[in-house]
Amino acid sequence: MASGPITRKVGSEVGSPASLGSESGSEERLRVANISVKQNGKHNISIRSNSENGERFEYSGWVYHLGVNSIGHEYCHFRFLFIRGKYVEMYKRDPHENPGLKPIHRGVIGNAFMVEESGRRKVNHGDLYVLRFYNRLDDTRKGEIACASAGDARKWMEAFDQAKQQVEYELSRNRSVRNKLNMEDEINLEERRPKVRRYAHGLKKLIRIGQGPEMLLRKTSNLGSHGRLDAYFDADGGDVVEAHEWKCVRTINGVRIFEEVAHAKSGKGVLVKAVGVVDASADTVFEVVLSTERQTRYEWDTLIGDLEFVDSINGHCDVVYGTFDPRYLTRWKSKRDFVFSRQWFRGQDGTYTILQFPSVHKKWPSRSGYIRTKINPSTWEISSLSTSSSSKTARCLVTQTLEINPKGWLKWRNNHCQKFEKTVPYALLSQVAGLKEYIAATPTLISASSTTLVQTTVSDDSGSFSEFEDAETADEFYDAIAADSSSSSDDDSDNEIGIDKVKKIKLKNVSWAIAGLALNKSSDPDSSNQLNTKVPPINVDSSQFQGSMGKAKDETDKNCWSSPAGSGFMIRGKTYLKDSIKVKGGEPLLTLIAVDWFKVENCVTNVALHPKSIVQSEAGKKLPFIFVINLEVPARPNYSLVIYFAADRPINKSSLLGKFVDGTDMFRDSRFKLIPSIIEGYWMVKRAVGTKACLLGKAVTCKYLRQDNFLEIDVDIGSSSVARSVIGLVLGYVTSIVVDLAIVIEAKEEAELPEYVLGTVRLNRFQLDSAVPLKV
């Protein structure tokens, strides 16, 4: 048997409105899929799977349940987690192998339910990847589970995301469901337990993520994911029109070596990168790069194979110590040691980024016989590549970037000198080639999959999905798992469950368009139709509004703002759902009228209601609509960056923008998109921030205030440990940074395309100490 989320499809087609009310209608739309199966790694067989187009999926699999019991002891237990629809259950054993087994915890995924990747954590002398659950409106209601690999944690995140989409879809179609969901906290769980056995009816497909308890114990990284749970992939590498350009100067061992042209001409240093395609999943490569296990690193890392863990800063940052003997580097004879910190995070597109900085740590002073040196700052970027349907191997693009002294590099690039090949920077650039060859020579890293697709038969007497849901209990899920009172003396025989070997089947890509179905089809995809064209426009003059941060006079001005053109950002084109092609954005729909930079004791919300707010000014009250974004920046002290955009006409209620402004918080979370771009600044900051669009509602906690003529979005950057790490890095270089931000409402249906740029802002080298105190 395998483990991890299992997905089941239930009921009629979700993706088509025509079939939403018909169970039989979906029977006519069957897809036949050939699925490759490996039985115990010995032989291949073929399974033909009939699946309905757009069916619901259900997930289950083995995880660790982390927490503190009633007597204050920390525990870590094997648990079988089950997600179906908006309901979640936790078992001590696999319910598929133990019919009639009752769950120990059950709950519902409500509209305030949030999941956060807490990163890697040491638990019982092993590394686990932790997921934290909490209520967006009440951070005290929370719980934690953990996975043995980053890949399994990613798949669980996607499973919970699809469950939240299911909630949004049901709420949008049935108001009685909304009322029921609000009341479900008060349901008595004990009275409904006998009915949960009905989950076995109406089952179509199960997808398991993970390798079972026996693999959790071993903590191996057999991740061979053959695709994410998304329905499509972006055709380009980012959502920003990059000003800089890279030039390939060498190809070594199948790895391309690039230099950034603009950086090379500056004479201050050369930014170079090694790029290679690795035949393994991004999850697998990420764990290999992050591993400090000596024997593994000896297989591919010619320079820093000897690494030791020093300290963990948080789940996304640690400090390591390493040594190397540069006898093959002719310039040095004595041994060298170093200390550097590593920060890592996974983007919403699945790309892993690892930042490596030279560091100092009091626990590791220089050792006798070694000379302390600084390893070049570098970054790793590991992104999945789409594979053809006939391919059985996942692939990813691995990029390592570092800044080096131009002297030896330029001579080597021009074939005038080979001494560069005996330097530390060259050894670092060779890591990509070593990694590529190591994984190619390790079949288990290429072929093993942590996801299993299990086919089941549908019984004729199965109940409807609504009946099945009514049989469920509905406490909020984070409350259920946080209430575990298991002690260290609890019967943990379930941690040693005997698990039979199961067929390993490639995960089939899953497509859900639930959030898009929440909207009626709009015939106005154009940005010009987002505002009411029947009302004559007014003149929006930003000079009438004075924020605490001034408007830029020219490009050299500091501590100021401006509004760049939308053409610097890539957004979804008219045919995006068919070809994934993005196009340059047009002029922003809304006008940037002011920016406030506040210093606050505690992060503040509802800034638009403050008596001295621009929204409450006489000029502000006359505007048809104001879009307010309050970026709550965690620091010492805390800051708030408040950005005000104005419309020259009222919002068209039937447009995508109108449905966003007056929609549910969950719908807003699934559509509010921010595109960042570091125009000028330290290259490591550029790599950390990236150029990909981010759905803020899925990355951090967002609160919404809709009143009168405005909508305010309070973005709590501190609610995510990843976001806190990135913003901490940005604040360290903020005085030399020019950053552009674009606001987009994500389009998910063809009728909503093409996308448009809602608003843009450029922040020019602003000073932290220029923040104005805000008295609440």
Automatic annotation (TrEMBL):
InterPro entries: EDR2-like, EDR2_C, START-like_dom_sf, START_lipid-bd_dom. One of its GO terms (molecular function) is lipid binding. Residues 246-431 form the START domain. Residues 1-27, 522-558 are annotated as: Disordered. Residues 522-533 have a biased composition (Polar residues). PANTHER family: ENHANCED DISEASE RESISTANCE PROTEIN (DUF1336), ENHANCED DISEASE RESISTANCE-RELATED. This is Protein ENHANCED DISEASE RESISTANCE 2. The lineage of its organism: Eukaryota, Viridiplantae, Streptophyta, Embryophyta, Tracheophyta.
